[in-house]
């Protein structure tokens, strides 16, 4: 048998699934003792270039509350043309179209290599993609110009049949009509008045009051000419819209001295949501909001327009001094839920030097699967390229975005689902297999993911419910099936089904096996997501304490040690990296709010709970490469000891790419040696990390902040704040060596952390 | 001469061509009764108890040379024998024959006029007596006007005397300001106030001034001087805040001055100090307008500006209803086309190269469309606001623009508007939100301004200010009739307040095809210094020119914005009531969103205390406003009146035209709160009291049967009767409620000239005009009797213009005016006279043009043929006749008033 490492990798490549445990403890009691729950990271639209979609409907189990999809784990009686559901054991006849089935003529979904299979189904008329731009006009001239150009450029990236719409806002909100020829027409709304969806539609002339039925039931607007006033196919309005964008002016209302511009973000979004709600319910649509500052008026306002009152900080929030926070958050949450119900996702592109209210608005994107991009200005390559990458295409030349996804999970009866953490909302689908212990977004077997990309990853948490006294027979397997229905960017409706199974193991007799089946990378991310999820609602220190306790418990469970003897503590290989992940996680901006604004934290957390495992790990523990004359570039420890004068370091934290030139290198560079032919090797050395960085930049969404710095440079703080402070001003002289760079911090180093962990783990008192 | 106190001032005692002859002819004639049947039950007045009354014409012997008009009516002579009856008619006949001069009536008039009574009398010996009395025998308005014109026309009226009575409004005179405001600006009901409240109460003559602060001044009179005291601003009395004026008495070598209004002694500011001459007059008296003139302006400082910020030039916003009705009638296209040229003529400061007024455009039906017409744009942009519940203005920059700069974009817009809505089928409109939008726009731009609203129908769309049809003819002549004239909703009241506080005037152009509830819709306009124009069943071909000339006049006229007027008086009396297109937040400050050259405010005064004959009664009207170029100014009008303990003085210096203006406005206001019947009765009662008091206190004793009228008020009854017959007061189901409300509202801001003309239209005979002369033929009395079958008459009252063609009108005249062979060929739907190259046509057209030119609003020309159905409309304006919808004839009314007087006296 291959190693677990290989097994895990293989499973991930095939199904996009990484479980925390690849052998499952067979009873509830044992499962809870394992500390890390049975859970997985699931990437529903994992890119599978080798997986051709099949062009027929999936075969479903006929039991009403099961409806599982036929899969390779099912037992099939080819002669009787009957298959048994592996979840509920219902025996189902094959449909007539499967008459020719035999053990040599199997449909794809029965073949083991098709544990993940994608069906293309014909349901309803194909609906084009919908993009609704919501543009802030309270920008600096330069910013607005850049944004206008980006938007104009984006029109060329859209599929020609996609529908586009434009809403601009400042003090007022304008919904632009795109079909008119002569005069540019727009509907204007007050930025302070909350309107119901019905009112919005009425004011936009989308409902015909005369057409509403005698019972007063509004007739769904079917007339395409009416809706099309605001949402038009790109190929039709390309020119118009380009001109319209070109003529966009800064918000014309004067901003008095000492005031912020009045920005009606809340109303603009509510109108965008209301417009789509009325015109294209249950159809994939993307609201793309571009804002250059915090909402300053109307519902959803985050800060008043007086410049003398600064926007809330963590300090204000902990002191309960942020007066708009709760109200605004509630407002945006309600909006996000409305959008999510209709399958519309909301992106936020926020570019400003100060905070823009992402803390309050984050749920818009978090709940609807939208993107959040944060930058200093729209006139930066960071924004421009990030935005461009939203429209990136896959190997088939189709957009890497899917809409209106629902994820349903089915599992063997020994398991129940506790919840999911990711860019999703609950669909409140009740069923017998829902755990009472809610983790993340729970209480359902179905989630809505309004917008999906190939990297969108959810953490799913399960609970083993098998009782201790009802052992599972040897060799028994538990299975989980993920059914993802979504609207492909080519307007097809698709269903992807992933069915995975793991063996049950008796935790008492097979604890070693279980230990070795531990996926410490996945577990670190899964626990981190839990921590981040908790951090949204709990106090920071509580979350840290909870994480610490989990770590200590895990070490106690799996560590080998003599009681009260820290030096004897040992962890097996499958757990060896886990404490280090936790150490860096504790220091990460996901849990540490110090030095990060509330907006930044929201931004980081947003990306953390949706990226796949690799990216998530980078976020937890950034990667550090070292370049030197001594050999090829090598990954080095994320430690202050790695910061050496004759090295160039490349650090990738997912959000930042830092190239750090050591003291000597920096001096050489300053002296201009690289210009001289005889030091060409130095030139190559300088270029090498740049090339590598470029490669990372090519594929990363959102674009990381690119930082080129050197020893003593102010930007070096990005590196210094991430590395393990093994040398600080406190212990510099005690070490007495000249390696590395001391970090001016009072944070504990990994060494201290580990020592402490060992001490606690072996303590008999704990 | 004036021992008895009732002999008129010298001008009046001089020869009066018409009147002067009466005494000569009648002095020795004994009272000659003249029967006059009092008709059936007159509509407006209760019938006299007897059902029969007798009129007697007789001058009063003791006052042969006096100016009094006596019109004795002896009720006791009901039993007069038939013989005397005949007798009297004979005398009258003689009189008529004697007196019918060329100026009085055509020679043909006397004949038929006399024939009637004889025949009638003969035929109905036992029945009701004959109806005719010589119409020339009762005071004639045209005669009075003519006399005044003859006496004072073309002269210079110098305002250097306290309490001098100015010429009539109809008279053509030149004013020289020498310390009192020109009568064009201020005209009083009487120029001699009674000294005590008791006297005032006794005589019941209203003490009022009609102020038209922006009255147009003829070119030959000096324009308003602007005084600029720089940073310190105008000099004001410390106590009563009156502005420096000729009534401030300098003393103490020029170091102090005593306020003429409150008698407070103030220090003269050092920069203003000037030595006094031997007369106690400042040396710089003639150099400073505020010391020597009745009217002048001060440049205002920041203290006089809103929020202490300098004012900005006003803005004109054109708001066009683009609902189905207006599109279909072609109005939208008409307005849009007109605006392209009209906007070049926006009002500007004298000498300024172009107007500073900004313009903005809104179209609307159920929702509003604002337009961005910034000059930088290639195309105008439309912004739709459908949130009519809470109106706001969607843009600031680009909405209000300078026409010159944005001409291309605006023209582009005006070209497109009619096409954009050409296919509309939206017939519902909103109204209050439209005004609200205008106010918000001005608020956002921090300026004052004016809204021009072109509206078609009653606003029924779901929005604030939505109106219901509440036109209920059953209410007419009931207690509840007043509700028809009360504005419907509180929304509009609040809107008026908002408008006034922002200095936003509303001009309403209505194009209704049915009831639109003008009482409510016009409410805002009449509280913001605006006007209401109404074109029922508008058709471009028929009414287009009429509307356009109204619009042009309205856009181009001189105007001030965001005005506050305060009338200060010397001690002893004060302004208590104000009538006009104004808004009052408190009892003293008259707020006007705008005030143009045609808007007048009528101010009523009451006594606080005894006035002294020596100091007289002083008043100062101070108007703070923003000029058309955005400067803040104070316009001051000062007027000094006499005071007298003698009522005769008061009656002598009464001004009938001003009186009737006051009566009209107060009656029209009263009808909101009282049944029309009460209003009418009160009017007559007060008139009777005024006249009775005169008779009792000023006239020499005479027979009770004699009606004695003070000279200055001798034509007052005809005006009053005409007022009682006006649409609003008459209470007839045949008149449209909207028309009545419209007339009521349009009268609120009228000046003396307008009410005079409205209540006594000009009837100009054209058939015998002298084509060689350039004067307008002398008007004749407004009575059917003055018309002749072979005549052609022009009638105008400031609102309507009729060309009446007699049945026997000479074909040559018809030919030369209309270019058709006979009367039958004259098209009645003609809207303007054909331009023909002959003296008659030229003359007539020049008359019409000059009339149109003089009036504040345009008049639609209606061609009326005698005995045609359309003649009814024309006949309504013959105010000396019995009203078509009720109301007595002039003669009947005199009898009625006389009876009332006698009742008061007994």
Automatic annotation (TrEMBL), chain A:
GO terms for molecular function: GTPase activator activity; zinc ion binding. InterPro entries: ADF-H/Gelsolin-like_dom_sf, Beta-sandwich_Sec23_24, Gelsolin-like_dom, Gelsolin-like_dom_sf, Sec23, Sec23/24_helical_dom, Sec23/24_helical_dom_sf, Sec23/24_trunk_dom. Residues 58-98 form the Zinc finger Sec23/Sec24-type domain. Residues 126-391 form the Sec23/Sec24 trunk domain. Residues 633-719 form the Gelsolin-like domain. Residues 402-505 form the Sec23/Sec24 beta-sandwich domain. It is a peripheral membrane protein. Residues 519-617 form the Sec23/Sec24 helical domain. Keywords: Cytoplasm, Cytoplasmic vesicle, Endoplasmic reticulum, ER-Golgi transport, Membrane, Metal-binding, Protein transport, Transport, Zinc. Belongs to the SEC23/SEC24 family. SEC23 subfamily. This is Protein transport protein SEC23. It comes from Hucho hucho.
UniProtKB/TrEMBL annotation, chain B:
Residues 656-755 form the Sec23/Sec24 helical domain. One of its GO terms (cellular component) is endoplasmic reticulum membrane. Its main location: cytoplasm. Residues 119-130 have a biased composition (Low complexity). Residues 312-555 form the Sec23/Sec24 trunk domain. Keywords: Cytoplasmic vesicle, Protein transport, Transport. One of its GO terms (biological process) is intracellular protein transport. The keyword Protein transport applies. Residues 234-272 form the Zinc finger Sec23/Sec24-type domain. The keyword tRNA-binding does not apply. InterPro entries: ADF-H/Gelsolin-like_dom_sf, Beta-sandwich_Sec23_24, Gelsolin-like_dom, Gelsolin-like_dom_sf, Sec23/24_helical_dom, Sec23/24_helical_dom_sf, Sec23/24_trunk_dom, SEC23_SEC24_subfamily. Residues 775-847 form the Gelsolin-like domain. Residues 119-140 are annotated as: Disordered. One of its GO terms (molecular function) is SNARE binding. Residues 560-644 form the Sec23/Sec24 beta-sandwich domain. It is found in: Cytoplasm, Cytosol; Cytoplasmic vesicle, COPII-coated vesicle membrane; Endoplasmic reticulum membrane. It is a peripheral membrane protein. Belongs to the SEC23/SEC24 family. SEC24 subfamily. This is SEC24 homolog D, COPII coat complex component.
């Amino acid at each position: 048998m291959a190693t677990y490492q290989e097994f895990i990798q293989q499973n991930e490549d095939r199904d996009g699934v990484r479980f925390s445990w690849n052998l499952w403890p067979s009873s509830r009691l044992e499962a809870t003792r394992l500390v890390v729950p049975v859970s997985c990271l699931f990437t529903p639209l994992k890119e599978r270039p080798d997986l051709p979609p099949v062009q027929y409907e999936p075969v479903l189990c006929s039991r009403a509350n099961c409806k599982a999809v036929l899969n390779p784990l099912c037992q099939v009686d080819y002669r009787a043309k009957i298959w048994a559901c592996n979840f509920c054991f219902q025996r189902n006849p094959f449909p007539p179209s499967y008459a020719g089935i035999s053990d040599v003529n199997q449909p794809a979904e029965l073949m083991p290599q098709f544990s993940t299979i994608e069906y293309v189904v014909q349901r309803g008329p194909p609906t084009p993609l919908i993009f609704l731009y919501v543009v802030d006009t309270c920008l600096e001239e330069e910013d607005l110009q850049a944004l206008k150009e980006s938007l104009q450029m984006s029109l060329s990236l859209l599929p020609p049949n996609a529908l586009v719409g434009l809403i601009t806002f400042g003090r007022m909100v304008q919904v632009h009509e795109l079909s008119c020829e002569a005069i540019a027409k727009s509907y204007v709304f007050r930025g302070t008045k909350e309107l119901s969806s019905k009112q919005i539609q009425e004011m936009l002339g989308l409902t015909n009051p005369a057409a509403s039925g005698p019972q007063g039931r509004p007739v769904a607007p079917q007339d395409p000419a009416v809706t099309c006033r605001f949402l038009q196919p790109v190929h039709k309005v390309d020119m118009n819209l380009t001109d319209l964008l070109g003529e966009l002016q800064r918000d014309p209302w004067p901003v008095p001295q000492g005031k912020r511009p009045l920005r009606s973000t809340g109303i603009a979004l509510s109108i965008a949501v209301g417009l789509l709600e009325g015109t294209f319910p249950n159809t994939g649509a993307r609201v793309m909001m571009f804002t250059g500052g915090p909402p300053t008026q109307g519902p959803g306002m985050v800060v008043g327009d007086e410049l003398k009152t600064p926007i809330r900080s963590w300090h204000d929030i902990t002191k309960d001094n942020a007066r708009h926070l709760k109200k605004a958050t509630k407002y945006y949450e309600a909006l996000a839920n409305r959008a999510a119900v209709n399958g519309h996702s909301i992106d936020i592109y926020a570019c400003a030097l100060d905070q823009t209210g992402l803390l309050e608005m984050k749920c818009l994107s978090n709940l609807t699967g939208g993107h959040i991009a944060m930058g200093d200005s729209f006139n930066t390559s960071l924004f421009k390229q990030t935005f461009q990458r939203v429209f990136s295409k896959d190997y088939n030349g189709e957009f890497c975005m899917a809409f209106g996804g629902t994820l349903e999970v089915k599992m063997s009866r020994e398991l129940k689902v506790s919840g999911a953490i990711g860019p999703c909302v609950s669909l409140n689908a009740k069923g017998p297999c829902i755990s009472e212990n809610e983790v993340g977004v729970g209480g359902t077997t179905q989630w809505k993911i309004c917008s999906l990309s190939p990297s969108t990853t959810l953490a799913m948490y399960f609970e083993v419910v098998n009782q201790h006294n009802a052992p599972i027979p040897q060799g028994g397997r538990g299975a989980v099936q993920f059914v993802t229905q979504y609207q492909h960017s080519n307007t097809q409706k698709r269903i992807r089904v992933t069915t995975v199974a793991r063996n049950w193991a008796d935790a008492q007799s097979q604890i070693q096996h279980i230990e070795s089946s531990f996926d410490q990378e996945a577990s670190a991310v899964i626990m981190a997501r839990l921590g981040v999820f908790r951090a949204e609602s709990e106090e920071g220190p509580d979350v840290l304490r909870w994480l610490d306790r989990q770590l200590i418990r895990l070490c106690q469970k799996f560590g080998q040690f003599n009681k009260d003897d820290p030096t004897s503590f040992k962890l097996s290989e499958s757990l060896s990296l886990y404490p280090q992940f936790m150490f860096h996680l504790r220091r990460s901006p996901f849990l540490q709010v110090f030095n990060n604004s509330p907006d930044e934290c929201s931004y980081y957390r947003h990306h953390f709970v949706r990226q796949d495992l690799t990216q998530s790990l980078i976020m937890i523990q950034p990667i550090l490469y070292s370049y030197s004359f001594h050999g090829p570039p090598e990954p080095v420890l994320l430690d202050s000891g790695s910061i050496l004068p004759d090295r160039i370091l490349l650090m990738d934290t997912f959000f930042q790419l830092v190239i750090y030139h050591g003291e000597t290198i920096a001096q050489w560079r300053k002296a201009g040696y690289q210009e001289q032919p005889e030091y060409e090797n130095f030139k190559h050395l300088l270029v090498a990390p740049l090339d590598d960085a470029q490669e990372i930049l090519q594929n990363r969404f959102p674009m990381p902040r690119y930082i080129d710095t050197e020893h003593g440079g102010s930007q070096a703080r990005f590196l210094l704040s991430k590395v393990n402070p093994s040398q600080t001003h406190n212990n510099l002289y005690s070490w007495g060596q000249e390696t590395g760079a001391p970090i001016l911090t009072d944070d504990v180093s990994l060494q201290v952390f580990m020592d402490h962990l060992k001490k606690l783990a072996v303590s008999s008192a704990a | 001469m004036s021992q008895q106190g009732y002999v008129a001032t010298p001008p009046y005692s001089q020869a009066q061509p018409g009147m002067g002859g009466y005494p000569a002819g009648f002095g020795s004639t004994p009272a000659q009764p003249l029967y006059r049947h009092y008709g059936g039950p007159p509509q407006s007045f209760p019938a006299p108890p007897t059902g029969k009354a007798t009129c007697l014409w007789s001058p009063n012997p003791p006052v042969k040379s006096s100016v009094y008009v006596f019109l004795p009516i002896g009720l006791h002579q009901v039993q007069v024998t038939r013989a005397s009856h005949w007798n009297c008619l004979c005398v009258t006949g003689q009189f008529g024959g004697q007196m019918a001069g060329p100026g009085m009536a055509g020679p043909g008039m006397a004949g038929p006029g006399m024939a009637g009574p004889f025949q009638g009398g003969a035929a109905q010996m036992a029945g009701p007596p004959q109806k005719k009395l010589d119409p020339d025998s009762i005071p004639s308005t045209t005669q009075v006007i003519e006399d005044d014109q003859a006496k004072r026309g073309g002269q210079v009226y110098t305002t250097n005397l306290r309490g001098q009575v100015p010429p009539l409004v109809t008279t053509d005179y030149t004013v020289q300001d020498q310390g009192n405001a020109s009568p064009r600006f201020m005209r009083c009901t009487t120029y001699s106030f009674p000294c005590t409240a008791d006297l005032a109460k006794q005589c019941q003559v209203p003490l009022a001034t009609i102020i038209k602060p922006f009255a147009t001044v003829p070119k030959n009179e000096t324009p308003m001087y602007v005084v600029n005291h720089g940073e310190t601003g105008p000099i004001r009395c410390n106590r009563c805040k009156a502005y420096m004026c000729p009534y401030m008495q300098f003393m103490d070598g020029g170091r102090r001055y005593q306020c003429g209004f409150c008698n407070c002694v103030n220090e003269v500011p050092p920069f203003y100090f000037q030595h006094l001459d031997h007369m106690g007059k400042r040396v710089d008296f003639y150099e400073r307008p505020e010391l020597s003139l009745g009217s002048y302006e001060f440049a205002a400082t920041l203290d006089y500006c809103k929020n202490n910020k300098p004012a900005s030039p006003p803005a004109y916003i054109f708001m066009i209803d683009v609902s189905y009705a207006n599109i279909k009638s072609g109005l939208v296209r008409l307005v849009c086309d007109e605006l392209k040229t009209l906007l070049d003529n926006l009002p500007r400061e004298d000498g300024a190269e172009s107007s500073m007024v900004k313009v903005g455009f809104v179209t609307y039906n159920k929702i509003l469309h604002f337009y961005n017409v910034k000059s930088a744009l290639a195309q105008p942009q439309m912004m739709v606001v459908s949130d009519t519940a809470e109106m706001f203005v969607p843009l600031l920059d680009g909405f209000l623009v300078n026409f010159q700069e944005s001409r291309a974009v605006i023209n582009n817009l005006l070209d497109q508007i009619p096409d954009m809505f050409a296919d509309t089928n939206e017939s519902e409109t909103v109204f209050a939100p439209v005004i609200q939008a205008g106010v918000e726009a001005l608020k956002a731009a921090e300026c004052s301004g004016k809204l021009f609203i072109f509206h078609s129908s009653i606003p029924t769309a779901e929005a604030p200010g939505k109106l219901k049809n509440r036109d209920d003819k059953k209410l007419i002549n009931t207690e509840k009739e007043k509700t028809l004239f009360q504005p419907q909703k509180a929304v509009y009241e609040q809107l008026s307040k908002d408008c006034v506080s922002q200095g936003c005037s509303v001009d309403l152009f209505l194009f209704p095809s049915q009831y639109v509830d003008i009482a409510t819709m016009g409410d805002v306009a009449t509280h913001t210094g605006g006007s209401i124009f109404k074109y029922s069943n508008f058709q471009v071909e028929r009414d287009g020119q009429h509307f356009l000339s109204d619009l042009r006049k309205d856009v181009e006229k001189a105007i001030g914005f965001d005005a506050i007027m305060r009338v200060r008086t010397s001690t002893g009396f004060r302004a208590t009531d104000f009538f006009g297109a104004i808004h009052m937040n408190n009892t003293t400050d008259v707020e006007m969103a705008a005030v143009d050259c045609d808007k007048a405010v009528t101010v009523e005064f009451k006594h606080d205390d005894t006035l002294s004959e020596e100091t007289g009664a002083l008043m100062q009207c101070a108007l703070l406003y923003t000029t058309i170029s955005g400067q803040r100014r104070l316009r001051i009008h000062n007027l000094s009146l006499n005071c007298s303990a003698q009522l005769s003085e008061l009656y002598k210096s009464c001004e009938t035209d001003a009186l009737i203006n006051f009566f009209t406005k107060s009656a029209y206001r009263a009808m909101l709160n009282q049944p029309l019947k009460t209003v009418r009765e009160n009017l007559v009662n007060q008139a009777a009291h005024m006249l009775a008091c005169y008779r009792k206190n000023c006239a020499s004793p005479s027979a009770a049967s004699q009606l004695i009228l003070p000279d200055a008020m001798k034509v007052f009854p005809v005006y009053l009767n005409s007022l009682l017959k006006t649409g609003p007061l008459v209470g007839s189901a045949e008149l449209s409620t909207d028309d009545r409300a419209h007339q009521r509202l349009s009268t609120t801001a009228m000046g003396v000239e307008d009410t005079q003309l409205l209540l006594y239209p000009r009837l100009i005979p054209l058939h015998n005009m002298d084509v060689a002369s350039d004067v307008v033929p002398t008007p004749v009395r407004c009575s059917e009797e003055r018309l002749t079958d072979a005549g052609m008459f022009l009638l105008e009252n400031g609102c309507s213009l009729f060309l009446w063609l007699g049945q026997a009108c000479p074909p040559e005249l018809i030919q030369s005016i209309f270019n058709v062979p006979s009367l039958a060929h004259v098209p009645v739907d003609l809207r303007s006279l054909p331009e023909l190259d002959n003296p008659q046509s030229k003359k007539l057209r020049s008359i019409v043009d000059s009339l149109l030119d003089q009036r504040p609003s345009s008049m639609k020309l209606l061609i009326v043929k005698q005995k045609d159905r359309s003649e009814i409309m024309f006949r309504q304006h013959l105010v000396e006749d019995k009203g078509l919808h009720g109301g007595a004839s002039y003669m009947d009314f005199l009898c009625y008033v006389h009876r009332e007087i006698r009742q008061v006296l007994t």
